[in-house]
């Protein structure tokens, strides 16, 4: 995560009010590598910092030999992605352990298998950083970059973290043509971030639903953005059949086609 770009504060969250770290630091990131480096040093939300580090200390028995990441988890995927996937937040023993979005838990297993089936990932599994997984034209991110207790960030934590997402979307704007949002929380979080990044969000705001699709126009007359809703890949949805692999693949294919990405179709 080292990057030559230097931040203006002396340490993560210590130069001024820690809670304002994202708002101070995000706008100055010149590229996604620099943004990711700044995200990884964030300590803006005390409850989330305590939880992510406590999970790393206590661990799960299955991961007793792991050295947990235990920091904010940056986005994952190429800097010229045409499509983005926005989730909720890292899992305490998933991405908080591995340091990569949706890597190391069953939600990620479900998502990456679908991405591979559609032709947007190089392999169907994601176990750890350095496992060889590559995304094809897709970047995965979240509105909250730290693992929250019970997988439930507060509205205040979401709002504190928003400058990271807004800057990420701004940096992706030259190539980004579609966004898939997993779940209602992510949908509500991404709309103001998209507006901050230069797309017009209509009033009344689009309502989340699985299969929802709307087009956002660019405020500067640039390329429009396709916005797609999908149930979250949580075990609560996938184990009950509320979200099936075919349902997820259908949304991913629609978003990929809207972004001009080649996709694989089911036989």
UniProtKB/TrEMBL annotation:
It comes from the Bacteria. InterPro entries: UDG_Type-4/5 (IPR051536), UdgB-like (IPR044147), Uracil-DNA_glycosylase-like (IPR005122), Uracil-DNA_glycosylase-like_sf (IPR036895). Keywords: 4Fe-4S, DNA damage, DNA repair, Hydrolase, Iron, Iron-sulfur, Metal-binding. Residues 1-28 are annotated as: Disordered. The keyword Iron-sulfur applies. Residues 74-252 form the Uracil-DNA glycosylase-like domain. Pfam families: UDG (PF03167). The keyword DNA damage applies. PANTHER family: TYPE-5 URACIL-DNA GLYCOSYLASE. Belongs to the uracil-DNA glycosylase (UDG) superfamily. Type 5 (UDGb) family. This is Type-5 uracil-DNA glycosylase. It comes from Streptomyces coffeae.
